[in-house]
Amino acid sequence: MSLHSSDTTAQAGAAPSGDSGAQPATDHVAAASAGDTRLAADNLVVGYGDRIIIDGLDLEIPTGVVTTIIGPNGCGKSTLLRAMGRLLKPRQGQVLLDGKAISAMRTKDIARTLGMLPQAPVAPEGLTVGDLVSRGRHPHQSWLRQWSSDDEGEVAKALALTGVSDLADRPVDQLSGGQRQRAWISMALAQGTDILLLDEPTTYLDLAHSVEVLDLVDRLHSELGRTVVMVLHDLNLAIRYSDRLVVMSQGSIVAQGAPSEVITPGLLLEVFGLEARVVDDPVSDRPLIVPVGTRHVYGAIGGPARSPES
């Protein structure tokens, strides 16, 4: 089973319409310099029932970079990602993959180029890590091409790259949160896609495991040439691990660009309702958000009487 089927294995991939994990950057990636666009939303309108969540949205995803979508709860981040992964059918507009409407493409063709890992995926009970990762090879199977030693090799590479080779025989439901997420990312790698869509890959993980997973994602991007699009809630992690941020509010894009260009106190207050200082991250060249709040700050309840600056 691939990341583009709609069964219980995480619903991981594109919804059905009416192929090498840890491999070098593919010819597609090699031919496209960073900044080119292979995935785009054109006048996208998406909703649930009678409610419109996204109305007339345009977005181009640059090739070869890590793009992270951020915004307050309910702004449409995951809805947008699901629509771009063909898990949600737009009411209007289209998602374009290599210039073609994704709605008109065969599921297997999409699954060879684009992999999606939804939020908090769930594997069937008892499924081992090895079996899970092997399912990433499904898009490459056909009546004429059955499971081969090449598939076996790509699964082994994906397991090794994500550091879960020693867990191959363990049931997925017995893993820790960080191990489980690495196993799912390994499945996406085995699928051999150029583009990875990750919806909240750090959900339910503590900070240490969140950093571990995002370090892995960044390594896959830099070493294998993958284009990555993520949704993250933790703003400082989004800033640290993204080349480009897309900021959403009420179903629309309000800002996009490099973290240093996008993240300002004014934007944080306007979009997130958060009063904060933006300072230099002491361990990177990125901005760092320091929330202010009303307590345990200088001059407030629980905080020192006065700032050292005064």
Helices and strands in order:
Elements: H1 27-31, E1 37-48, E2 51-62, E3 66-70, H2 77-84, E4 92-97, E5 100-101, H3 107-111, E6 114-117, H4 129-134, H5 149-161, H6 177-190, E7 195-199, H7 207-224, E8 227-231, H8 235-241, E9 244-249, E10 252-257, H9 259-262, H10 265-272, E11 276-280, E12 287-291
Parallel strand pairs: 3-8, 3-9, 6-7, 7-8
Antiparallel strand pairs: 1-2, 1-4, 4-5, 9-10, 11-12
Structure description:
The chain is an alpha/beta fold and 310 residues long. It contains 10 helices and 12 strands. It has helices at residues 27-31, 77-84, 107-111, 129-134, 149-161, 177-190, 207-224, 235-241, 259-262, 265-272, and strands at residues 37-48, 51-62, 66-70, 92-97, 100-101, 114-117, 195-199, 227-231, 244-249, 252-257, 276-280, 287-291. It has a 6-stranded mixed β-sheet with strand order 6-7-8-3-9-10, sandwiched between helices. The chain has a 4-stranded antiparallel β-sheet with strand order 2-1-4-5, with helices on one face. It has a two-stranded antiparallel ribbon with strand order 11-12. The longest helix has 18 residues, at 207-224. Residues 1-34 have low confidence and may be disordered.
Characterize the main sheet.
Answer: 6 strands, mixed
The average pLDDT value, as a whole number, equals 83
Number of strands: 12
Task: Note the gap between the termini.
Answer: 62 Å
Order of helix and strand elements from N to C terminus: HEEEHEEHEHHHEHEHEEHHEE
Can you summarize this structure?
The protein has helices spanning 27-31, 77-84, 107-111, 129-134, 149-161, 177-190, 207-224, 235-241, 259-262, 265-272, and strands at residues 37-48, 51-62, 66-70, 92-97, 100-101, 114-117, 195-199, 227-231, 244-249, 252-257, 276-280, 287-291. With 310 residues, it is α/β, with parallel strands linked by helices.
